[in-house]
Amino acid sequence: MSAPSGIEMLLRWLRRLPIPNDRIGHLVLSAFLLATANTFGSSLAAARFLSTQGGEGIAIYYMVFALVSIPAWVVYARMIDRGSRVVLLQRFMVAVIVMTALLILASGFGGTAADYALYAGISVLESLLYSVFQVVLIDYLTAREMTRYSTRVAVALSAGGMVGGSLAGLLAGFVSPFWLLFGMPLILCLCLAHLAWLSLRWKPAGEREEQGESGILENLRSIGSMMRGFLIAILLSTALFLNIVTQCIAEYMV
């Protein structure tokens, strides 16, 4: 199958997708757009890195990734509970769009440092975006809804990853890798616009509840928040370790 016919089939498939008209459907659509943008950018960044640095640079990349990830996750842990999470996600997405564009522009000058910065930067920003989005899902969905609709979100993330990777592969034969990388911030702009519209139409589950709850229930919630504050450092460290191990295994199995 040629690349043009593949793109045409993908477009026909996208046209047949039903447009969601409810809160759950739009959250699933946001997950799909986010995964599409992240996989599109990370696939191209990985391909560029391997073509310039080769497999020998993977070990150094993981050290750079860890050095950048640790302070990034520390900042994330301090910021995640300050204010509205959906607003935080929108602001962080704006920052990711700007930083990604700057990293791509810097990579145009070439050099080893630019290659490491592009690949490690996109990888760290990708993991942070997924984490903030998961927190936003928890805010928008009740515990019962999370249990019921988590499969839809997981499928949307997987489908977005497949579409993002497929688009990167299909378009690589028509557009230069440098300009093609700008597709990631462009898709993130679409995701940002959709999230902004979603936040105006629907409020998080906590904000939809009536105010005035106090007493034992409120105290239990405050205790839960304190416990999460103590455990978050351990959870983030574990997540970072597992992420690095998974990427190491994936890279060396290719």
Overall pLDDT confidence: 77
Strand content: under 5%
Structural class: mainly alpha
Low-confidence stretches: 208-216
Topology:
Layout: H1 3-15, H2 23-53, H3 58-79, H4 85-107, H5 112-140, H6 143-171, H7 177-180, H8 183-201, H9 205-208, H10 216-253
Helix pairs in contact: 1-6, 2-5, 2-6, 2-8, 3-5, 3-10, 4-5, 4-8
What does this structure look like?
This protein has 254 residues and is an all-alpha fold. It contains ten helices and no strands. The protein has helices at residues 3-15, 23-53, 58-79, 85-107, 112-140, 143-171, 177-180, 183-201, 205-208, 216-253. Helix 2 (23-53) packs antiparallel against helix 8 (183-201) and helix 3 (58-79) packs antiparallel against helix 10 (216-253). The longest helix has 38 residues, at 216-253. The two termini are 23 Å apart.
List keywords for this structure.
single chain; mainly alpha; 254 residues; Growth Hormone, Chain: A
In short:
With 254 residues, the chain is mainly alpha-helical. Helix content is 83%, strand content 0%.
